Amino acid sequence: MLLALPALAAGLTAPIGRPWHVLLLLFVLYAIITLVVVYMLRHYLFTVNRLFGRQRYPYLDVDTARWPEITVLVPAHNEEAVIARMLDALLAADYPAERMTILPVDDRSKDATGEIIDDYARRFPGRIRPLHRREGKSGKGAVLRDATAHVTTDVILVFDADYVPGRGLIKQLVAPFFDPEVGAVMGRVVPYNVASNLLTRLLDLERAGGYQVDQQARMNMRVVPQYGGTVGGVRRRALEHVGGWSDDTLAEDTDATFRLLNGGWKTAYQNRSECYEEAPETWPGRVRQVRRWARGHNQTMWRYSRGLLASRRVSALEKLDGQLLLGVYMMSPALILGWAVAMALWYLGVNEPGLIIVLAVTCYSTIGNHATFFEVAAATHLDGSRQRARLIPFILMGFLVTIVSVTKGTFTQVVTNGANGDLLWHKTERNGARNGPNARNGGRTP
Amino acid sequence: VTLVVLVFFAVTLLLLLLPFVPGLRELRAQRDAEPLPVSAEAAVDIRHFAHGFRAFLERDLGDSLARVRTTGMRRSGWIEGQGQYSVMAAGEPVDLFADEQTRRLIDRIVAGVADVEIPAGLRCLREIYAGGTLRAGAATEVRAVLADEDIVLERRARSVRWVHAGRDLKVAADSVLQGRASAGRSIALGAGCRFERLHAPVIRFGGDAPLPRAGDVVGAAPADVPLIDWEPAGLGAHHELAAGRLLVEGDLDIPARARVRCDLVVWGRLTIGAGARLEGSAKGHRAMRLARDARVDGSIVGRDDVTLEDGVVVDGPVIAEERLTIGARCTIGTAAEPSTVRAGAITVRAGSVIHGTAWASGQGLVRA
What we know:
Number of strands of chain B: 32
Structural class of chain A: alpha/beta
Helix content of chain B: 10-25%
Largest sheet of chain A: 8 strands, mixed
Oligomer: heterodimer
Strand order of the largest sheet of chain A: 3-2-1-4-7-6-8-5
Shape of chain B: flat
Distance between the termini of chain A: 73 Å
Order of helices and strands of chain A: HHEHEHEHEEHEHEHHEHHHHHH
Radius of gyration of chain B: 28 Å
Largest interface: A-B, 60 and 56 residues
Number of helices of chain B: 6
Shape of chain A: globular
Number of helices of chain A: 15
Strand content of chain A: 5-15%
Radius of gyration of chain A: 23 Å
Number of strands of chain A: 8
Helix content of chain A: 40-55%
Strand content of chain B: 35-45%
């Protein structure tokens, strides 16, 4: 039967005058180019929306209210370099102290993280309630799942240990929860170690494009802003409604975003709720981070893509944007495949340069998580940071690293581990106080 | 041919590398390598500019103010980067130069150690400070005002950037408050006033209009008529009650005098009947209407227009992405737990009270 297929295809394609394998390659190439163009249009739409569209900040101005009781979770695995700075920042936050519990989670740390947390708990009794996790599954999802079992409040904020929240940030992140439709909130991540090297400068640009343009445009257009796992929070009863934190994924944040969405809960993005983070300073660290994101994101795609299409709680526009968001990390292998197919066709004597040009020009505009150059340009314009826009051509380097890393991560995931992938968590290396925000004007740690 | 090829490749390489040159220069010079400034307080704290001006007064005019208090003699001078200033003694009127008299315009910082009175019809292009009460005559225009005690703006006055009163801010009819207006104790706006952002423990709309008083039954059902617990029966398959939230895919009408014990998320129009009580929060994708004397313990969030009819009480924040209409005798927030009202445009009928913040990103208007 299988042996007959080429003959059948040859018979069908004979009138077109091209062999079946050429037609198959052309079909693949056209499909990839179509996807590439769709993603490119999406990015242009987001950029135009941010530059010229109506901007939505519905919760930004809520500065006075009966603030709810909240718990702030800070998962920490070997974070002795940064955890004290994080706890200091939370203790200085402008939020009623009696309504905010800080719950740092020492996740099997082998350094002094646990002792530092205990020291703070002794100095600030009632405000800091530490949790020492000595066993259980690895991964942030598992940590959050265990920690949430100790939470009694409905609003939970989550920060990574290397983040430095400003004084007003907690209220800004809590404000959207006054909307009973909001299940999760995400703020804007801003690297503070920008000047360290070329990589951190590129990541600064990438973050700017991703948050200032992509996320806010999604908020404006009422599609799918993404909960990013840091600088944000969830409504506990909403999360429990959709099954709680997933402890079998590498991207518990994306996983939560889509389960909440399918369950009729929205994620709100607060562009002006900015928080400093420490961006990776080495290329190997960056590669590991991107590969982890890719594998986790792809897990989410396999799990929730069909559910998203079937959900009655999601609008058609949200379904379209959600599917494109889920498929974003598949575009890297698709692009590499597209280039390979285009080359193969060229060697087979199929001279269709137009297709190759389209693919070459537009592919640079498509890698979703890797902010595209025009989005970065728009973001630097909106941020008023004009000089750093000069580095935009260097994004090409980050693009190449990303496309190869994501493709490798996806390939490894599919070939060796199946669609669900492995759960090995590669922790991002911290440099701590060496480049803390206090070192520069922008920092405001207490 | 070889030379042509070499030149071709050299030019191509040059054109390829050219876009990297500005970036390389930036990498070397590091002119824009600071982290983006994160300034949450400026966005949130309505008194941000007032605090800044007070810091300026203490830093640059502290000596002058102290000396005028001691000597009772006015002082004037020049501050580098800030321009001219005058410090007035207690009981002194604002002294106008001849050209200022003619043009009805004053372009210097004015600081008074006690009360300050701005003559009617004057435009003040710089900040004004009063150690006591500031009174601005009819049709004055002030840029920014800080008073330790009260601020009184007479009819058709206009503030351009911000005003902050340590105690009470009283604004007469048909005035305009652009930017921020705040007070330590209360704000009272007359009919016809327009505003953008207000903040005070008590904000009264309508000047002398009767206000809800403690003990009024505004928003609450009379004790002798019990509320009826409402259940989402008859909504068909297009709803879901889970996680303390009722999600309705169409319109929803809560009957009068009903009691609802969950949050509401309604994709269509939402009406909460007269005298009904919502012991939760409500979100509507289309128009929302809270009928007379309805009461909400939580918040109200509308993607479209929101209307609060007379006597409605909402304890939590009220957010409308389009227009918000607030009827007479409404109360939002409480003295103990102030709240926020935020909308694209806000219209408030005289006799309503907001405890906390009112922010119209477009314009707010007080109707008689």
